Amino acid sequence: MITIDALAQADRAAWQRLFEGYNAFYEHPMPAEFYDQAWAQFQAGERMHALGAKLDGKLVGIVHFLVHANTTAADVCYLQDLFTDPDARGQGVARALIEAVKQWAAGQGCSRVYWHTKEDNHTARRLYDEVAENRGFIQYVIPL
Q1: How confident is the model over 98-130, as pLDDT tens digits?
Q2: Rounded CA gap, 141 and 144, in Å?
Q3: No. of helices (H) and no. of strands (E), the chain
Q4: What pTM was computed for the model?
Q5: 86, part of any domain
Q6: Domain presence at residue 141
Q7: Could you give the strand order of the β-sheet that contains 48-55, starting from the edge strand earlier in sequence?
Q8: How far apart are CA 41 and CA 19, in angstroms?
Q9: Which residue range is the domain that position 82 belongs to?
């Protein structure tokens, strides 16, 4: 059975291992202090939020999200990072995490939840096409 909950201090090492896996997948290595900063933000629960998914008491999935203003409706929830341990994939972990963010955002009065993924992330996109609507937007980025 999958359980979803806020990350506790005892989850710190497992969370970092999963977040490192996420960053490796997207070829985005981060310095150690960024993990420390993110963890502190998640524990504060004010600007950024995180949930963890456990199977048999083991942390096997994480999701990070935040709320921001929106010019055309109520605030929106951006699901920034989602990662499932490769050994736990196909068991509904990512689906459960997305649903938990959806429920959380609805409780905050958000008008929608949205996220990005790489075009060639076919495995994730199969799930995303089932649980969300692809509105066809293209993302542009200016690194600073």
Answers
A1: 999 999 999 999 999 999 999 999 999 999 999
A2: 9
A3: 4, 5
A4: 0.96
A5: yes
A6: no
A7: 2-6, 48-55, 58-68, 76-84, 113-114
A8: 14
A9: 2-131
